[in-house]
Amino acid sequence: MSTQTSEKIQKAQKTKKRITIRFAGDSGDGIQLTGNQFTSTTAIFGNDLSTFPDYPAEIRAPAGTLFGVSGFQIQFSSDNVHTPGDDSDVLIAMNPAALKVSLGLLKENGIIIVNKDAFSDRNLKLAGYDENPLEDRTLDGYQLFDVPITKLTREALIDSPLKSKEKDRCKNFFALGIAYWMFTRPLDTTLDWIKNKFKNKPDIIEANSLALNAGYSYALSTEIFTTSYQIDQAKVEPGLYRNITGNEAIVLGLITASQKAKMELFMGGYPITPASDILHYLSKYRNYDVKTFQAEDEIAGVGAAIGASYAGALGVTASSGPGIALKGEFLGYAVMMELPLVVINIQRGGPSTGLPTKTEQADLLQAMYGRNGEAPIPVIAAQSPADCFEAAYEAAKIALQFTTPVFLLSDGYIANGAEPWLIPDTDKIPEINVKYADPKESYQPYARNPETLSRELSLPGTKGHEHRLGGLEKEDITGNVSYDPDNHDKMIRLRAEKVERLVNYINEPKIDGDESGDVLIVTWGSTYGTMCNVVEEMRANGDAVSWFHLRWINPLPKSLGKIIKNFKHVIVPEINMGQLIKILRAEYLVDAKPVNQVKGLPFNTQDVIDAIYAIKKG
Amino acid sequence: MSDQVLTKEDFTSDQEVRWCPGCGDYSILAQTRKVLPQLGIPKENIVFVSGIGCSSRFPYYIDSFGIHGIHGRAPAIASGIKLANPDLKVFIVTGDGDGLSIGGNHLIHLFRRNIDVTVLLFNNRIYGLTKGQYSPTSERGKITKSSPFGSLENPFDPIKMALASGATFVARSVDREPKHLAETIKMAAEHVGTSFVEIYQNCNIFNDGTFESLTDPKIKKDNIVVMEEGKPYIFGKESDRVLAWEDGSFSVNMHDEASSSLVHSLANSNSSVEFALAELTMDEHKPTPIGVFRKINKNTYDGLLTKQVENVKEKLGSGDLEKLLSSGNTWEIK
Ligand code: SF4
Fold first, then answer.
1. pTM of the predicted model, to two decimals?
2. Which of A250, A286, A458 should we substitute to test contact with B (largest number of B Cβ atoms within 10 Å)?
3. Which CATH class is domain B1-210+298-328?
4. Fewer CB within 10 A of the terminal residue: chain A, N end or C end?
5. Is this complex scored with an ipTM above 0.95?
């Protein structure tokens, strides 16, 4: 649909480089769907973008309540986008509670579009408003558009045979129509989606399509909306793209690794927020030789994955902090058995049950040290939703080739957040060669590759290689149970050395900026996007900063030890109380300074910049 | 199938057996080594999985593939092995502490899923490896290191647990009945589906004589009833008594040739009979049954999973990586 047809009213069009929109409403308002539609349209239009859903922990929170508000934020731009944005430029609020919860996240003079019809006495009271904020001075300083969305949707659907309740459910499409006009987006992507989604329900197709068009036409033709915005296409690398969440990307990365290793993938899991989607998505791919096992608990999930790995599959388990805590004993066992295993932790707010739907980076030390005995496990962290693909592939590759469990850390922020992903050429993804012991030779379970120190596996079914292994200390080479003191010391060192030597086989991350100077920022995981913004803005202010974003936290990159001594200030921002910083201080004896915030939310760019300037000032 | 005939020596590993002299585990090991060659399965296709405890050292002594797991979790490891490679014959060796206390949750779910593995549970009613604390099968009032004034807990009956959670083969035997034990292990190993054998095992160090009434040649016949297919439940030194099925429970009657009483039938299992038989265990006035309580055929989880993978492949075609990565809403930037 053309966006500039026969306008009766003179309307202005402004070009903007970057916009952040927040959709908010009741869980039942279809906010996630609306946000996802806006995202698809925007991606196909050619903007760079990043999104984040923000939904309540309660499954069916009572309508109209503050804790029942579901949000969806998208930042899109004609330039690079690294995060879903801090404060939004536009808020689309479907009820008073949504307005109240989201107002603090809106920029000064930001645009507010509300469904005026939802501002009933009852809803105002549920949201804790004594006065109607649309009528008092609460929203002074914003550009308010109060639209009777429910009423207008009903009018648009007057001829529809749907029941009035069903008609009211179309109002999110009306709101989406307004947004499409305001940001000059075409409607066809969503119209096609509606047709596909409700294939056998022509009345619903008709009603939703009508509502979408009605919203668009309303914005176009009424006088209240005077300005629309143009956000030009971004210059992005050519190729085929799709929008992808972190958890989807992990699943694709794992399947790619198992196919490239010519192995079955076996995932032992147990439902837990925010990791369950990994189990859900994997369970759809039986035809890719993916076996998923929903175990009776977290412990059995990892136990079954270890069993499957022992029998020759790529063993995977995925959970979040509390579940990882339960798996601890088995992880030490996998270290002892030196079996490949991918352990995924989608971190959430802790401790204990904590904040299940919120994000945090506070399980790093758990991954590093959360086991009895000396039990080192390599730790890799994903930095963005799309990056989860490569991180998962790499975690699996290292696990298989180095006969070790590998921790893959992600978090609620990038697990549920989404961004466009340049789909890789499958032929260019390297095969993963997994070598088993030669069946013609006699077998020593704990004989090692002299370079990597990985041990050679022999799968059950290999004649002549029958052997017994367990969690008791092993004798070097034979793998027999051994209580010998010197052997124990040797084996502990061998297991540690194996992880340290990994550093020779993984890509060295590159420092962004000079290798010496005033400020070095060191980060890991999902803060990557925010830190891109921080570094860009600081440089735009004329400040030289260097930035090292870690891919593997265990082992640490080779070059870091040297570089880290070349700076006056070493600053480590983390969404925890300072975990990486403890490792860096211990490892390099540097007086690194932390920037910490643990609100269950990603960093705000400006907060980090302020904190860095404060540290610089001393 | 194996091309050469294996013997019990083929299944004897080079590891020195480290149980206390006189431990009931020796008998179970001997009978298992005897049974394994009879299964006709090449030894490289057999995996023994255990947890932690005296019983769980078992895999070290069998020359097949073996995994000594962690406490209580053998069913989890074994499930993963069997599901990843259904061609393997998988045994779980566990004990009353390992399988019923710390690992109780895993065991019931294994039974419920009917994964094709064989579970041998050595019940000695004590924690042996940790040197003598009461276990979930110890009788109430038992004096042990951790219960100097007597345990306050009621014991668990593993047979009832297995029956209730849906195991498809449930049996009991005794370490001191080698022939019966070997036959029972063999039947269990040949069963398709989760098979469970509770083996009464004497721990002569920490709980000596706990099963004496069932093993002492002078009195055992009065205290054991051997369940045999198609036969009535006759017991007693003189084979003079029989269990009679009356109003939904068993009572002890004198056995004479003329009287007709219920015969044991695995095929037409009736859960009230199964449970009534299991119930006898706790009844000091009635004999303890040994033999097979249940043997039924049901779909196994591993079988269904293999079929599901095949069906999905048939329906959707074998996975194509390129198609997978580029599925969903895609767009092209030129
Ligand atoms: S402690 Fe008891 S069960 Fe353990 S080996 Fe000794 S006799 Fe056997």
1. 0.95
2. A286
3. alpha beta
4. C
5. yes
